[in-house]
Design brief:
Radius of gyration: 17 Å
Strand content: 15-25%
Shape: globular
Distance between the termini: 31 Å
Structural class: alpha/beta
Number of strands: 17
Length: 283
């Protein structure tokens, strides 16, 4: 696999939507990370979330906050609330009924923000399974998002969609197994994908960073990049070193309490791409 050394990376200002974990808890089990017998420290979850929000602000990004609703403990995972591109929104339809009421709450906020919201037909879980990589939209399926939703996204946004099959239930959303670092570079853990999807990703991204399994299990790939700075799980030590070797700037965060619900930094972060900003503005 060809690998380039360090090079200059360009940060672009982003706009993010987040939802505080005021009601965060593990009261049901819909992914392998959830264990209702493990206690959750809501104060610690809030502190970790607040540190993440402050990190984005310190990097020069804009962060909007959606008020959480009682009875929706997973609402903190804002990435699942929509996918947004060019001021258009594909709203979500959750796989599990426990999360269904989150969908209208996110759609209402985005509509009030002046974005054009389209209700989905097929099940999709937003940026959990849709990741923009340059001029293509990487789309996950296998556990949550229906393959039919990939066609909906292509019709709505008019960008090519690359369908990717997830095969390891620990990595039930695309954003748990793959991070888009810039328009040409991804980081991923290949065994989370089917053989055919691995071949596609190797063809599209020949200089991809391959994470170790321990870093993947630490949710190191549930990372957020502005093209230069990569907000990444502090426990993903090898991945952080690989990022630095490629010229990215790792920004470690501890999201261990929120991992009890099956989410990390990216899960807590929804990118809002307005009509004039596909990929943000140069910082």
């Amino acid at each position: 696999m060809p690998v380039t050394g360090p090079r200059t990376r360009t940060a672009r200002r982003r706009r993010y939507l987040m939802c505080p974990p005021d009601h965060f808890a593990v009261t049901y089990e819909i992914n392998p990370w959830m264990d209702i017998s493990r206690p959750v420290d809501t104060a610690l979850a809030r502190a970790q979330w607040e540190h993440l929000r402050r990190t984005y602000l310190d990097l020069g990004h804009t962060v909007d906050v959606l008020d959480p609703l009682p009875g929706l403990p997973d609402m903190v995972y804002a990435a699942n609330g929509a996918f947004i591109l060019g001021g258009r929104v594909l709203a979500v339809r959750f796989r599990h009924p426990e999360r269904a009421a989150e969908a209208p709450a996110y759609a209402a906020w985005l509509a009030a923000a002046g974005l054009e919201v389209t209700e989905p037909v097929a099940v999709n879980e937003g940026e959990g399974d849709f990741l923009l990589a340059g001029e293509v939209l990487l789309a996950g399926t296998g556990f949550r998002t229906d393959r039919a939703a990939h066609a909906e996204a292509q019709e709505l946004f008019g960008v090519p969609v690359v369908s990717l099959q997830l095969v390891d239930p620990r990595f039930y959303h695309l954003d748990t197994a793959l991070a888009v670092l810039d328009e040409e570079t991804i980081a991923w853990w290949p065994p989370a994908f089917s053989p055919g999807s691995q071949a596609v990703l190797r063809r599209l991204f020949p200089e991809a960073i391959e994470a170790t399994e321990p870093d993947a299990v630490a949710f190191g790939l549930n990372a957020v990049s502005d093209g230069r700075h990569v907000v990444v799980a502090a426990a993903a030590h090898d991945l952080r070193a690989q990022l630095a070797a490629r010229g990215f700037v790792p920004v470690p965060v501890d999201m261990s309490e929120l991992l009890k619900g099956g989410g990390g930094a990216k899960c807590c972060t929804l990118e809002v791409r307005g009509p004039d900003a596909r990929d943000g503005e140069a910082a």
